[in-house]
Amino acid sequence: MHTIALKYAFIIFLCFTSLLTDTNFANAQSNAQSKSIEISVLSYNIWGLPISTPKMKQKKRFKQLTQSLSEGKYDILCLQETFRKRLRKRLLPQLQQQYQTYSDYNCNERMWGFFKTDCHGGLMNLAKFPITKEHFFAHNAIEEMSKIEKKGKKGILISELKTPIGKVYLINTHLYAGRKAEHEKVRMHQIKKMEHLIDSLQLREYPILLCGDLNAVHPSLSKQVEEECQVYQYLSQQMQFKGLLNKVEEKDYTYDTAKNEYADTWWYRSEGRQKLDYIMYHLPPNYQLNIKHQEVVYKNDQTFSDHYAVEAILKISRP
Length: 319
Prior knowledge:
This protein is α+β, with helices and mostly antiparallel strands. The protein is 30% helix and 28% strand. α2 packs parallel to α3 and α5 runs parallel beside α7. It is globular.
């Protein structure tokens, strides 16, 4: 009888221990979801135009670019100007071994009846996190836009990522090019459409990462901030997005006609030396973000585009 009682006591002890273990595991999972996460991000305009000239060296660049990006160094890739079918055909099979995608980036459309271009305005989002939703919104064609920009159908690509801290929204965009006042006016129209999308889709309830070729002048590089920096000012003041830098120095330029052979072509030379590419962020109340690292990469003799890329490591903490 004593032996039977001991056996029952032992069984009860095992069940209780198992219950404690399960409870601890559940608590650990809950705690893990509330902890911070470090995310490495790359934003890169890779200059994959649907046409080519010898100076563009597309065959060489596309091969080098694919080899480098397929190393899988980053958690998130935001690419712009992936228009060229040949580029996507080479790039996607390699990147999809490391990254998840949502949209059909092999989709093609015809430009002017004979050029083949992509269906997402040259934008591509790839992540090591599951992408649960994604939608592309083309910029509206307005009177001030050039025919090429209208046909290029650039826009805004919004992805919902499932991360250990919950939803994180990724916005990848390519805004209108040019330094004239009418060009800034077009960009303002595009950025206000983005604001409307963010509000109507209620994205502000979660962290938002904004990446892309904004073609926007940083205020620290301008002597005419009110005229030249309307887009950046609107993003930071009205839309409450924060950039990675308060002051831009020479090492932070992402477009440099003095040092980048691909940027130093007659049709782009007027852009000079600028910061046109950005990673920015918006946080809900009580969230925190720590910029662990930010740097301009794929530059000088290591560039594969007329633009340099921006990389960042961001630590995001939820309440």
